[in-house]
Q: What sequence folds into this?
């Protein structure tokens, strides 16, 4: 919970779970055939699911549905608030119910054509507002129920759905956590989800560096002194704003302000937050971690991006887990064994886990006992030598009394404080646990041997221990810490970028929002995407959509002669003329041949800003074709961009967040279109003598080059 001093209004967020909504008690699920021309005819009503028929926080099979000829099992459970969560063949990241939000609906079902596709939909206020996400990398997903977890997977991906108990401040009535496993290297560094909504809007929560600038004027004569991704301080060192790291590049969903609070048909529409998609924590098999960031490239797509550099060196499998309220191993292991169960050894597992600057809530341990009752305790040690117990991090006794493997949680009586360093999460059991306990774990390839500290006694946690090899194998116990990030006071309010603000601060535009501008005489709306510290349009000028492939003809867009206006000449089929222009503005929409040296459309060319060398320099360029506040990127900026690609070719160009295309070029010699679908050419604003620099890429290379300004290349605009 974040308290806003201005007006003392509260902005409440659930912390770890991706989606923070409460669900209605009864609802009807429809399985939707995404992408089918016969969608309406294949939509099928399924059973009305009532909360009274479901178990609390325990997934139950509730039936089957058919769509597109594919059968999908359906599962459901209810939260402690008597809300219903249904999941079908696959879902998304983390879902929870949140205190104070009622009459909402969560559906996770399968959308199918000829193959199964992950599909997720969230309704709120009896369907007044909703949004849905469909995983775009469809495969042959199926779903099974294993030890209380619904698992949906194909050969490339694995999705795990597990009900979670109440975590105060996160999901106040219990909810659902979902993790995504990449079994092998994905085709690119982005997971793509089709996005659809009704009376709902998505707002990217960017780095605070996108919303605040050093030197910006504040009240009382103060200015902004320091800006980071997560914090803003004034010139006196006082905190001004804070955005937790799991909220940076997260997405908030709000009821559409164009409809909510309006009376329609005698009904008062509601307003407020529908949910959140938080950043996800990415962990490879060697326990290397990073963040996966959400972005909104356009009005129909959401991306979850993993840094290319991380993927290049990662050891698979890679797990994407909901970030913000846990650290540790949150997967309920598929192996149950008594081997690691001891009452004289503190078992730590092979891996350390990166903590957060937060207050601990509990430790959860996965396991079972065939009969009777056992007790275990958990605690957290640092990675020093010897290892130091974190004060108050040892839990009370955790009772285990079921033969069914599940999570068992011990809540702290006095909450410990953690920081952003690596920790070992440990446990030890009583005599019954040592004799017959069954610890849940998985084998972790490429890791370290499982660690432990012998000669200890259940119920006594030494202030220091020495963790060393316990098993000469890599078994990772299912154990994690749940925490609550500290309350943050804001003097300037919290910005929900894109037009909605909580607090009294103004709402600045931020990358990820749409750009509305006039292009070729008509209104255009393009999405934006952040990459390499810059904000780019998500498509080429003139493109009708964001690229779906490097050779997507609908995403090629127009081809500009360097330095010319948006005057129509850039249309690929525009008329032609051999008459060179004697001014910066030719006054017509024809492509101009540049037959002789210096191969320009203007004569005389001149030099410096007395000629046409400054027509595209910056936002003030005389003929800048980009909208106000936007410009053509420089040679140096393009060099940084293609240097970050996963491969130096058109595959790497498309795999980048910019989704660049091989749109070819229009020749200065005869206006013919060349290399379309084989090479991409993008102008920079940088001149090189009588020529201009451009980025080019094909099937085997990517580089900067220079050529005559009469050639027509693609243009991609960047925010100044």
A:
């Amino acid at each position: 919970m974040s308290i806003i001093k201005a007006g003392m209004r509260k902005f409440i967020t659930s912390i770890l779970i991706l989606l923070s909504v409460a669900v209605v008690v009864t609802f009807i699920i429809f399985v939707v055939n995404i992408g089918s021309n016969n969608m309406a005819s294949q939509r099928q009503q399924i059973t009305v699911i009532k909360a009274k028929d479901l178990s609390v926080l325990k997934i139950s099979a509730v039936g089957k549905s058919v769509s597109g000829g594919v059968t999908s099992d359906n599962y459901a459970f209810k939260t402690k608030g008597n809300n219903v969560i249904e999941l079908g063949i696959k879902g998304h990241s983390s879902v929870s119910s949140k205190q104070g939000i009622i009459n909402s609906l969560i559906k996770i079902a399968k959308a199918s054509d000829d193959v199964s596709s992950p599909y997720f939909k969230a309704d709120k206020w009896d369907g007044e507002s909703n949004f849905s996400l469909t995983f775009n990398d469809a495969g042959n997903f199926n779903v099974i129920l294993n030890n209380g977890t619904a698992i949906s997977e194909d050969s490339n991906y694995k999705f795990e759905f597990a009900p979670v108990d109440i975590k105060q401040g996160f999901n106040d009535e219990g909810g659902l956590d979902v993790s995504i496993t990449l079994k092998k290297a994905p085709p690119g560094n982005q997971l793509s989800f089709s996005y659809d909504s009704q009376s709902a809007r998505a707002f990217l929560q960017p780095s605070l560096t996108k919303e605040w600038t050093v030197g910006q004027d504040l009240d009382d004569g103060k200015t902004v002194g320091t800006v980071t991704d997560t914090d803003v301080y004034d010139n006196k060192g006082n905190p001004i704003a804070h955005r937790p790291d799991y909220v940076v590049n997260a997405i908030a969903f709000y009821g559409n302000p164009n409809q909510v609070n309006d009376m329609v048909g005698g009904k008062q529409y509601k307003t407020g937050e529908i949910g959140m998609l938080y950043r996800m924590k990415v962990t490879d098999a060697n326990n290397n971690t990073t963040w996966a960031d959400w972005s909104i490239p356009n009005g129909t797509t959401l991306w979850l991006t993993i840094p290319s550099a991380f993927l290049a060196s990662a050891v698979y499998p890679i797990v994407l887990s909901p970030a913000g309220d846990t650290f540790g191993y949150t997967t309920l292991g598929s192996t149950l064994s008594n081997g690691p169960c001891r009452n004289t050894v503190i078992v730590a597992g092979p891996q350390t886990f990166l903590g957060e600057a937060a207050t601990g809530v509990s430790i959860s341990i996965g396991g079972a006992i065939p009969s009777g009752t056992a007790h275990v305790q958990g605690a957290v040690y640092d990675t020093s030598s010897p290892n130091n117990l974190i004060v108050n991090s040892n839990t009370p006794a955790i009772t285990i009394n079921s033969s069914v493997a599940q999570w068992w949680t011990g809540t702290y009586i006095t909450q410990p404080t953690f920081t952003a360093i690596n920790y070992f999460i440990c446990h030890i059991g009583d005599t019954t646990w040592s004799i017959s306990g069954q610890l849940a774990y998985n084998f972790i390839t490429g890791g370290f041997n499982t660690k432990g500290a012998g000669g200890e006694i259940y119920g006594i946690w030494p202030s220091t221990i020495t963790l060393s090899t316990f098993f000469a194998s890599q078994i990772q116990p299912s154990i994690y810490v749940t925490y609550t990030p500290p309350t943050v006071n804001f003097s300037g309010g919290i910005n929900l970028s894109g037009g909605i603000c909580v607090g009294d601060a103004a709402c600045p535009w931020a990358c990820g929002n749409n750009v509305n501008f006039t292009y070729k005489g008509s209104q255009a709306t393009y999405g934006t995407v952040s990459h390499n510290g810059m904000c780019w349009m998500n498509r080429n000028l003139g493109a009708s959509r964001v690229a779906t492939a490097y050779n997507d003809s609908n995403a090629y867009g127009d081809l500009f002669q360097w330095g010319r206006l948006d005057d129509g000449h850039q249309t690929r089929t525009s008329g032609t003329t051999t008459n060179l222009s004697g001014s910066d503005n030719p006054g017509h929409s024809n492509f101009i041949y540049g037959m002789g040296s210096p191969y320009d459309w203007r004569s005389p060319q001149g030099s410096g800003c007395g000629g046409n060398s400054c027509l595209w320099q910056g936002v003030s360029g005389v003929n800048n074709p980009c909208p106000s506040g936007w410009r053509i990127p420089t040679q140096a900026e393009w060099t940084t961009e293609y240097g970050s690609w996963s491969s130096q070719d058109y595959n790497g160009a498309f795999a980048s967040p910019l989704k660049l295309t091989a749109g070819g070029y229009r020749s200065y010699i005869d206006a013919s279109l060349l290399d379309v679908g084989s090479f991409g050419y993008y102008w920079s604003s940088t001149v090189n003598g009588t020529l201009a620099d451009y980025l080019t890429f094909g099937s085997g290379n990517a580089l900067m080059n220079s050529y005559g300004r009469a050639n027509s290349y693609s243009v991609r605009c960047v925010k100044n």
